[in-house]
Specification:
Elements: H1 2-27, E1 38-42, E2 48-50, H2 53-62, E3 69-73, E4 76-79, E5 87-88, E6 93-96, E7 103-108, E8 116-120, E9 125-134, E10 142-146, E11 158-170, E12 175-195, E13 200-218, E14 224-226, H3 233-236, E15 241-244, E16 247-248, E17 253-256, E18 268-270, E19 277-281, E20 287-291, H4 295-298, E21 301-303, E22 308-310, H5 313-319, E23 325-327, E24 331-334, E25 337-339, E26 343-346, E27 353-356, E28 366-368, E29 372-374, E30 376-380, E31 384-392, E32 402-406, E33 410-418, E34 436-442, E35 446-454, E36 459-465, E37 468-482, E38 488-492, E39 496-509, E40 520-524, E41 529-533, E42 536-540, E43 542-546, E44 551-556, E45 559-564, E46 574-580, E47 584-587, E48 591-595, E49 599-601, E50 604-607, E51 617-620, E52 626-629, E53 632-635, E54 639-647, E55 650-659, H6 664-676, H7 692-722
Length: 723
């Protein structure tokens, strides 16, 4: 028991010592700390020693206002003794220490007018070469604040203030440095070790130069802050003019509550050449300026046209002009959007960027289709292009959810729309008539390309527009067989549509009521028209339904049908074949040879025989080698050429090899060679050219004949002579 009592006594003593030490740090000099010496020099007079800072201030206050006054603090600490110890209201005063690591002003829990540990409220004041530590300068105060205590009607400016080679720190509250109502200030080589709020606060400050500023940690994660109060013109009615030099910012964040339309106009902030800072605007015009490596930049929305960043998508839309492209980064963005200017919303990819429905923003909905109500995730009253992103729900309330509602031209490309549904009943979908991924009600054109729609509740696509409609490479996947709500794929109430390469599946409604098996893949009504090609229906109650004056042209296989409204109320349209396409084409030859100048006619056969349009299109792969017209090929020069015949999407080819024609010299040589080896006479008894051996014999005989003739001539001459 005695040991326990001794322990308790020892603990109490240690606690008392600790408390005393804490008190001494906050308000008095500890026994082992040096008190800084204090001297005062006024003008050319000899320096005087003061035994306290309050005494030094009395000396400078008594001096002529225009005199140059210097209070020099030696190495050590100078502590506040009351709330007004460091109230500086004397102009032309310099307070200089021995260095920021040698001289420390400590204000403890004292706060001048609840605003500052050190308050500079006079012109031409310099604070340099020291540190200021303020435990609690007030919730809106600062370790050092430059301002004059004004009134609701006026805040006089403090002029020509210099703060250099200074270290500042707050512990429990406030900023490190606060410049409020300043004309002409130089802040250089200042370090804000720590603060509860931002390191630096600036308001109604003109001609301010800040260089070699270093900031530390604070609860706001903000280095420099520009506050604004629209209800206090006296204190916040002037724009800030600040030039920044070298900045070493712990958080890399400068935040401003002053929008460009604030009282006094927009701030003018100038940064040193080469500084890598990016401005990100909020919807109300306020902004933050961050280091470009800050994560906030990667998560910001960029207007690629103006190269301006915004904190959220709606802010970027609100600031945009017609034609701007708004790039939305990867990530999930919750919030319903209103688009009232013609822009492009471009995500980082459907697998990277998601815009999620926000039930808290749904309001009372938007009227469309003459009185119906929609609750869109994206509501566009101007032409809009949406690409490279996902639009998603769901909602856990019955009150409604939809994807896109456009009342102007709409382009959707490379987009996934999913979970536009209600889960309020505990299932994947519920029976309320909402959950429509794409709605259009207006006069603009519509283009939906490479779009995937899944996990929706009612209509996947519902269009009521007089514009031209293109739906291509679209996949629609319904809830499958269920008895909760009759789903539909594509509803066309107006307009002229081209529907191609579309897959619609999972639309089976099996409830035991009058709407059983009434789901439709494609539905046309009023005077809508549609040309449908390459479209697949899988597990759909009715592939299509045509009503009123609507007309659908649909290609199934190689047959084109015209579908119109049926006179039978239970029928979903009368189908009449109006065209048959070729499924194949063949040529009577696939290869052939020709000599230059030769001709060849190719014959083509179409399948089936009842093709509606039998037009054949013939082409040559090289018309310098051979040409073709209506199947007749004419060879022009030696080489190889491919002749192609087409009908619609089918084709056939023939490869033609063209050889050179024989020349006349080649003909004579060939004939001579043939005759030398031929018999003396042809089968018809005609003479043939003799062989080489026959020619020699003939020559000998001829010579003998000539000799004989000569002999006869001599005999005749002799006889004549004898007579």
């Amino acid at each position: 028991m005695r040991k326990n009592k001794r322990f308790l006594v020892l603990a109490a003593m240690l606690l008392a010592v600790a408390c005393a030490a804490t008190f001494m740090v906050g308000s008095a000099v500890a026994a082992d700390e040096d008190v800084a010496s204090i001297t005062v020099k006024i003008g050319d007079a000899e320096a005087q020693t003061a035994d306290s800072f309050a005494a030094a201030m009395e000396l400078v206050k008594a001096a002529d206002a225009d005199a140059v006054k210097v209070i020099t603090l030696g190495e050590g600490v100078v502590d506040a003794v009351d709330a007004n110890t460091f109230r500086i209201e004397t102009p032309n005063l310099t307070i200089a220490g021995a260095g920021a690591d040698k001289t420390v002003i400590r204000t403890g829990d004292f706060a001048i007018s609840g605003q500052a540990g050190v308050l500079i409220a006079a012109d031409n004041v310099t604070l340099k070469d020291l540190a200021v530590v303020s435990n609690n300068p007030g919730a809106s105060g600062a370790a050092v604040k430059v301002t004059k205590i004004g009134t609701a009607e006026e805040l006089p400016a403090v002029k020509n203030v210099t703060i250099s080679n200074v270290s500042l720190k707050t512990v429990e509250a406030g900023y490190g440095l606060n410049l409020h109502g300043v004309e002409g200030a130089v802040v250089t080589n200042v370090t804000i070790e720590s603060s509860k709020k931002a390191s630096v606060s600036i308001a109604s400050a003109a001609d301010v130069k800040i260089d070699a500023l270093t900031t530390g940690a604070n609860d706001w994660n903000c280095d420099i802050y520009f506050p604004y109060n629209p209800n206090n013109e006296a204190a916040y009615g002037k724009a800030n003019e600040v030039t920044f030099g070298e900045l070493t910012l712990a958080n890399g964040v400068i935040s401003s509550e002053r929008a460009s339309d604030a009282m006094g106009g927009a701030d003018s902030l100038t940064f040193a050449e080469g500084s890598d800072m990016t401005t990100i605007y909020n919807g109300d015009g306020t902004y933050v300026i961050v280091d470009s490596e800050n994560a906030a930049v990667a998560g910001a929305v960029l207007n690629e046209t103006t190269d301006v960043y915004y904190a959220d998508i709606q802010s970027a839309i609100d600031a945009a002009k017609a034609g701007d492209v708004i790039a939305i980064p990867a990530g999930e963005f919750t919030g319903n959007l209103t688009v009232d200017v013609a822009v492009t919303l471009k995500g980082a990819g459907a697998d990277k960027t998601t815009i999620k429905f926000d039930k808290t923003m749904r309001g009372s909905g938007v009227e469309y289709f003459g009185g119906r109500i929609a609750y869109p995730t994206i509501y566009a009253t101007a032409d809009v292009t949406i690409e490279g992103l996902t639009i998603a729900g769901p909602t856990d309330e019955h009150h409604g959810i939809d994807g896109i509602l456009a009342k102007a031209a709409l382009t959707v490309k490379d987009v996934v729309i999913t979970d536009i549904r209600c889960t309020a009943d505990g299932g994947e979908i519920c029976g309320v008539q909402y959950g429509r991924p794409i709605l259009v009600d207006g006069e603009g054109d519509v283009s939906l390309v490479n779009v995937e729609i899944k996990k929706f509740q009612k209509q996947a696509i519902d269009l009521n527009t007089t514009g031209d409609i293109t739906i291509r490479s679209v996949t629609i996947t319904g809830a499958g067989e269920q008895a909760i709500i009759a789903q539909n794929g594509i509803i066309l109430r107006k307009g002229n549509a081209v529907i191609d390469d579309v897959t619609i599946s999972g639309l089976i409604y099996n409830a035991d009521n009058e709407w059983k098996n009434c789901s439709e893949g494609i539905d046309l009504s009023a005077d809508a028209t549609a040309t449908v090609t390459n479209t697949t229906f899988e597990n759909v109650d009715n592939n299509y339904g045509v009503w009123d004056e609507a007309v659908m042209t649909i290609t199934e296989g190689n047959i084109v049908y015209k579908v119109t409204a049926s006179s039978d109320e239970d029928s979903y349209g009368d189908k009449e074949p109006i065209a048959v396409f070729a499924t194949g084409i063949t040529l009577d030859k696939t290869t052939a040879e020709l000599e230059v100048g030769g001709k060849l006619t190719l014959a083509a056969t179409l399948a089936p025989e009842n093709v509606t349009d039998k037009t054949l299109v013939w082409t040559s792969s090289d018309e310098t080698i051979a040409t073709v017209k209506d199947g007749e090929v004419t060879a022009l020069k030696a080489g190889e050429v491919t002749i192609t015949v087409k009908n619609g999407d089918v084709e056939a080819t023939c490869t033609i090899t063209v050889k050179a024609a024989a020349t006349s010299s080649e003909d004579e040589s060939t004939a001579s060679t043939d005759e030398s080896s031929a018999p003396a006479a042809s089968s018809e008894g005609e003479s043939e050219t003799p062989s080489t051996s026959d020619s020699s014999a003939t020559f000998v005989a001829l010579m003998l004949l000539v000799a004989a003739a000569g002999a006869v001539a001599m005999i005749l001459r002799k006889r004549t002579t004898d007579k």
